[in-house]
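Hi, here's the filled form for the chain we discussed.

Project: internal
Contact: R.S.
Residues: 200
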Amino acid sequence: MQGVKFDDKHSYYHWGLMFKSRPVISPPTPKTKYVDVPGADGALDMTDALTGYTQYQNRKISFEFILMAGREKWPAIYSDILDTLHGKKVKMVFDDDPDYYYTGRVTVGKWDAEKVTAIITMTAEVEPFKTEKLRKTKSCALTSGGVSVTIQGTKKPVVPDITASADGVQVSFKGSTYTLTAGENRIPGIVNREGDNVLN
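And the returned structure, exactly as it came back:
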């Protein structure tokens, strides 16, 4: 049965909620910035002037469920859904897209319990990008001449975790050099963006 998992609670297997219609996942709206220049045609596009890439607003997901349980169970189930999800920030994994999750805050709407079946609606405001569930890693053994590592980035900018086996290892990225300490390092100046990202 197709559904969605909110953290550790599955919509169908935990509450008996079945999709009435396919959830609507809206695309994120680009954060655009245009500056009108007097005496010039059009406007100056400053959308990616500061960061070098386009940033996005949050996106929305809309759900409409049919509650499949018997009528006598409706109030208790609805109360449990409110207690578990309403106003809470959760991870959402869709059964038909199991390798990724969305992170956002859920709002549970009022339920329509006047008919043979109960209808429950929900909305979620989520981060602009879905996140891959499995963490990708690359390992390399250093040599006297150094080593080059290429990381394939996605549209979502990511600061990678770099684990060094000893103090003093140096990493160069886009003209800047950083010295690592033994253990895990997160360096704000190293940001993987869409395409090939080369670390030396």
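Let me know if anything looks off before we file it.
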